[in-house]
Design brief:
CATH class of the largest domain: Alpha Beta
Bound molecules: adenosine-5'-diphosphate
Order of helices and strands: EHEEHHHHEEEHHEHEEHEEHEE
Largest sheet: 5 strands, mixed
CATH architecture of the largest domain: 2-Layer Sandwich
Radius of gyration: 55 Å
Number of domains: 3
CATH superfamily of the largest domain: Histidine kinase-like ATPase, C-terminal domain
Length: 422
């Protein structure tokens, strides 16, 4: 060992104990894997070996006599770590530590060190021996394996998560498939039930019409007095029978119509139809009813010969439904106006009335079959509640649409849109 206070190797005598001492000294001096050096009781470097020079970068002449705290980074100096380690070694005999230390060029290495207190025979502290090893590589390897263990753990966690997700997705897909199948079964069942209902309604209303027509016919015969004289009282009762027969017939016709549309039994004969002609022929039919109720009918002419692609009979049926509703729901003194317009490649026929209007929350409901505003079992109303459902279905069957705008208490506007004929 290169020692500042002791004679250098080679000055030793040839006595056996001295030879052993020299051997030890040489051994320590030459060891390159460990920095081995001595400190005086205050921490000043006394000796320096080859390992210390290799590890820390100082030559013996540069470091001997300097305080060993130069090996510690600033954060350790702030807590007086060098001083603490010496005190621990002085009181307990040794101090061990692992931590960052500085080389001469300022770079860091990860050191494992052991400080041993050196005492003379009388027990007096004469200094410290310090052995330091560079564990930078080992630490880096440990960190690398820790990092790769972390990565593997993260990958495994991600894989487990992905597997869990895929299981969940599969379960969800299975559930959705089941639901879709169930819906399909239900929709087939509903379709079958719906068709059965429509067919039943069609058959039933058809069967009811025959006897009803007979009732109408025989009532007329009686009224005409063909089978014998009729008293004025009997005439009045026959009138009532006839009105009821007609009402019932119109209800049954509605039901028959609706069930036929629903059953897809309606054929459309689409041709070029002059809207004004269709409107005029229906207005002629409805005028007596409107006059009787003192409701004015106004047709606003555009002057344009508007032609739509439609089935004339179905178009007239829609206009008739809309006009009779307008008369029915408009108080005496009110007005119904009809107007036509072209919107791109569509003809729009609007029917406005100054009637009772429709509550905003029921504007869509009134197109549902059997829907009547304010109707309940306790307050049955005139009509079937099928007119608008039929009209909308017919409009759609002709590639058109039927919509409504209304304000309660002010009136309603129904608009029928059909493809414009070019
Ligand atoms: P119905 O006239 O036989 O009751 P509709 O399907 O033609 O059946 O009409 C359904 C309901 O829509 C009517 O009962 C009425 O409450 C409402 N409604 C239809 N047209 C009008 C209108 N012009 N003004 C106010 N309410 C209307």
């Amino acid at each position: 060992m290169i020692n500042a206070n002791e004679p250098q190797p080679g000055t030793a005598s040839s006595k056996a104990p001295r030879q052993t001492d020299d051997l030890h000294r040489l051994l320590i001096e030459r060891v390159e894997e460990y920095a081995i050096f001595a400190l005086d009781p205050d921490g000043y470097v006394l000796s320096w070996n080859a390992g210390a020079e290799r590890l820390k970068g100082y030559a013996a002449s540069e470091i001997i006599g300097r305080h060993f705290s130069v090996f510690y980074p600033a954060e350790d100096l702030a807590t007086d770590k060098p001083g603490q380690e010496l005190r621990t070694a002085a009181t307990t005999g040794r101090a061990e530590d692992e931590g960052w230390r500085l080389r001469k060029d300022g770079t860091r290495f990860w050191a494992s060190l052991l400080i041993t207190a050196l005492r003379d025979k009388s027990g007096e502290l004469v200094g410290f021996g310090k052995v330091t090893r560079d564990l930078t590589e080992r630490r880096a390897a440990q960190e690398r394996s820790l990092e790769s263990a972390r990565e593997i753990a993260a990958q495994q966690a991600a894989r487990a998560m992905a597997e869990k997700r895929s299981d969940e997705m599969q379960a969800l897909a299975g559930k959705l498939r089941d639901q879709a199948e169930q819906l399909e079964r239900q929709s087939i069942a509903a379709g079958v039930a719906n068709r059965a209902k429509s067919e039943f309604l069609a058959a039933m209303s058809h069967e009811l019409r025959t006897p009803l027509n007979a009732i109408g016919g025989y009532t007329q015969l009686l009224q005409m007095g063909i089978a014998g004289p009729v008293t004025p009282e009997q005439q009045k009762q026959l009138d009532r029978i006839q009105r009821s027969q007609q009402h019932l017939l119109s209800v049954i016709n509605d039901i028959l119509n609706f069930s036929r549309i629903e059953a897809g039994q309606i054929d459309y004969r689409i041709e070029r139809v002059a809207i004004c002609d269709a409107v005029e022929s229906v207005v002629t039919m409805i005028t007596p009813q409107a006059d009787e109720k003192r409701v004015a009918l106004r047709m606003e002419h555009t002057g344009l010969p508007l032609t739509a692609m439609a089935d004339l009979q179905k178009l007239e049926q829609i206009i008739l439904n809309l006009l009779s509703n307008a008369v029915k729901f408009t108080a005496p003194g009110g007005t119904i106006s009809l107007s036509c317009a072209v919107e791109g490649d569509v003809v729009a026929l609007s029917l406005s009335d100054t009637g009772i209007g429709i509550p905003a929350d029921q504007l869509e409901d009134i197109f549902e079959p059997f829907m009547q505003v304010g109707r309940s079992l306790a307050t049955p109303k005139e009509g079937t509640g099928l007119g608008l459902a039929i009209s909308r279905d017919l409009a759609r069957g002709m590639d058109g649409a039927l919509t409504v705008e209304s304000r309660e208490g002010e009136g309603s506007t129904f608009t029928l849109r059909l493809p414009l004929a070019r």
